[in-house]
């Protein structure tokens, strides 16, 4: 079997994919793209050619697939160039920074008969897969509500890249979209409407640094979500799951799912229930910690992409699915800007305020 030839555009998030690729026997990392000093250092470490112009890489390299981890506003252009070269695409989440660009990405990949995988890599996490199984198994009964937090302090150099200070680079679109996708993936619920408030009080940049969101689902359960990327805190997926060695690990939980038979916290997978004959606050809760074998979700995602390129698998995260998550984030942004409740798939913005 011949090696699969891939390239990685972007040496921030893309660096992890590139490192994994050079250690997987049947994947050949042909080249990488980046235009700063860090990209130069990492390309040298990887011992592969560095293109400062990703368009030139796509045009000149013989490839089977491409991994796009560029700033969100560049996703559409990069995918269009790749699709026209008949390259299968793994594009980092969000699929795009606007719904219109996301729709265009899906369309051009279909027109050129290339597979599109969107990089919501948490869906490959063994921990999240286990949580999804627990929720769907009726172990906690009917889901009543969900509480989610992304609260941490990013390092100050993170904000030296100007695109991260703009609307397409804020924590809602960069980080919140992960958590919203987790909510959809784990519960299977359809997010119908949102009401959100956002602030930029920490850094006073044009983009939010904190937000609070109430999400209503078509099926009935409600979810609360608080996000901030400027607060010293352990309550985030990144710091609690220990899936990425870049981050310091904390023994805390960032999600809770509440059901009629019990509740579960994540990532500790601690289950709280009562014995049926001793139900209610007069009795002690039963506490059970469920076990699951750890994995590396991004490595699993890369291996899945390789299977897609070979024709052995269909994308686990399709463009259409990723677009639904983006629509929720866009509704959150619109709600916060307009101070109104927003229907996720509404044709028109409502005029009445809450």
Architecture overview:
By secondary structure, the chain is an alpha/beta fold. The protein folds into two domains: 4-114, NAD(P)-binding Rossmann-like Domain (Rossmann fold, 3-Layer(aba) Sandwich), CATH 3.40.50; 123-295 and 330-335, Dihydrodipicolinate Reductase, domain 2. Helix content is 33%, strand content 23%. It contains ten helices and 15 strands. It has helices at residues 14-22, 37-46, 54-60, 75-84, 99-111, 126-136, 171-187, 237-241, 297-310, 319-338, and strands spanning 4-9, 27-33, 50-51, 65-68, 88-92, 116-119, 143-151, 191-199, 210-217, 222-228, 255-259, 262-266, 270-273, 286-289, 342-343. A hairpin with a 4-residue loop joins strand 9 and strand 10 (222-228). Helix 5 (99-111) runs antiparallel to helix 10 (319-338), helix 6 (126-136) packs across helix 7 and helix 7 crosses helix 10 (319-338). The protein is globular, with a radius of gyration of 21 Å. The termini are far apart. The model is unreliable at 348-354 (pLDDT under 50).
